[in-house]
Amino acid sequence: GPKQYEAPWKELERLGYIASTEVFNPKDNTFTAGPVLPTGRAMDTISEIGKDKVLLTGGMKIVDFKQVFLKETIVYDAKKNSVAVGPNLITARKQHRAAVLRDGAVLLTGGMNDSGSLKSAEIYRNGKIKKAGEMSVARREHCSVPIKGGKVLIAGGHTGSGYTATTEIFDPSTNMFSPGPSMAIERAFQTCTKLK
Q: Model's pTM, two decimal places?
């Protein structure tokens, strides 16, 4: 009989790298199909970038059973229920963190790629990617959270050789990081939450 056509993202979903999206409607308590991403991915970041828009950055996919680290960014527009490819990151990265700054820009820190854990940071602002200062410690699987004065706390993570209790504070007015106080215990995959 005739061969049944299968959408190309279905194979990616079998591998665990999902390209399809779903949108939750809290009024109806239902999910509906969203747009299909250009690339199935895992370990990316997702941040709100203004009214009805979301930014996806980096992550990874599998090609020929090997990890491929992504530089791609994608912008989701809720009003149009569509996605568009944004500017490429300077450095491909997965397991990085994103924090939304006061002006709506997004600070992307650390992560890892073929070269190991990363010290580098980038800022997405008004549809463009620019380099930020470097952290003093390479880290992935850390947390980042906006704090008082518009700054961002970066805490813990894995350096590539072990877990760390170190923290750093990003100042958007200087585009630089400075050392913060160390935590009592090394940790990774934790979350950071600003208390009011």
A: 0.89
